[in-house]
Amino acid sequence: MESLVIVGASLAGLSAARAARRQGFTGRLVIIGDDPERPYDRPPLSKEFLSGQFQAEDLTLEIEGEQLDAEWLLGVRAVSFDPVAREIALEDGRTVHADLLVIATGASARQLPELTGLDNVLTLRTLEDARKLRALVERGGQLVVLGAGFIGAEVASTAHSLGLQVTVLEKSTTPLCGPLGAEMGSVVARLHEQAGVELLCGVDIDGFSTEDNSVTHVRLADGRVLPADLVVVGIGAQPNVAWLEGSGIDVGNGVVCDAAGRTTVPGVVAVGDCAAWLDTRTGQHRRVEHWAGALGRPAIAVGALLDHDDAHLPVEQPYFWSCQYGARLQFVGDVTGSDRVIYEHGGPGEESFLAVYYAGDDPVAVLGRNQPKQFTRWRKFLAKLAVSSAEQRLIA
What we know:
By secondary structure, this protein is α/β, with parallel strands linked by helices. 25% of the residues lie in helices and 32% in strands.
């Protein structure tokens, strides 16, 4: 019996399993995950779960009565893959044969080595992380967030709503300048100011004062000292690809894939946060660390494995959303190469706006704040433009 093994049991892995069965795969299906939990939704960890509105059972991704006929190996890490024997070695000594392999091992939160093991310093990536963070947030006090990206901003927003005093530190001159660009990053930064949360950008950390295995103060290079009852480190994530060393699978900043998720080893694809797919628009490989990509791209990659029509589905442009201080932010596209931003609705100081990024005469990305209907229209429009451009490239 042919076996299809999925390493990674979060949204991307579960989506791959669903795609395999829907596309007609009837062989042995094995799902391996280092997290002992069944698949759960991660975006609410920094919001509804942290605030206590959601409990663990509210996060489940599996559908009641869903029949995947899969073998689940949870709480165990894959440590290597032999492409000749088609064997995956697990850290407990077991091996699993994989005629076909889907790599969905995700990414891990980046750490600061000098803070490792301290009792009041946390990252937020897993349900276990969120449980620990919620317990500490319930104590109140002064929270210092390192990094003003999506995780850092959402944790800051939730903690502020629960009564904590919050300071957010960002090394760049504006938050989110990578995905949004400096201009719109500055606009989004105002959410912190409007809520009364201190955001310090362009700052360097000189060090940390500790006592009884906890941080008590964060020292800045400019001489300022910030008291801290709790520190959350939100400085990005790194792909979980070390276990593929020596497998012949090309890895860099993620598993290097073609435009349908195929790797450099036949019969192996990669999806989710660990996968650097080829973007045919730019000719660059890029990781898309967002929920929508983990939901939609596995059908394409599994289609490539099984020679199914889904392999030719259009790859959606990067899309994400974030809820901060009562504002819903939505973004789609790629700001690389954009030369200006035009507000189609509202403006930078307003509670609701829709901003379109242009490269020359072409719209390439859209950011909306509390504009779900207009944003959806623009998202569909950009998707049509992307499909049209792809068709033109094929003809050429």
